[in-house]
Amino acid sequence: MEIFKNPKYYIIIAITFVIVFLMNYIGNDAEDKLYSALLNGLGGAVGIAIGLIIYHKSGKDDTPQHFD
What 3 state SS string does the chain have? Predict the structure, then answer.
């Protein structure tokens, strides 16, 4: 996909992972806080990647609508 050729998207995904990971790791008192924080960070990164793919695909529709 051409979206992954732009390094801007990798930076956005990495920043999202770091923010979600740190929020979960610092604010969690459970025994498995590292595992939980990693899974939540990964989930956030995957979610933002899917959102960016959808956003990128929806921005290509430059054809005007034909109303009768």
Answer: CHHHHCHHHHHHHHHHHHHHHHHHHHCCCCCCHHHHHHHHHHHHHHHHHHHHHHHHHHCCCCCCCCCC
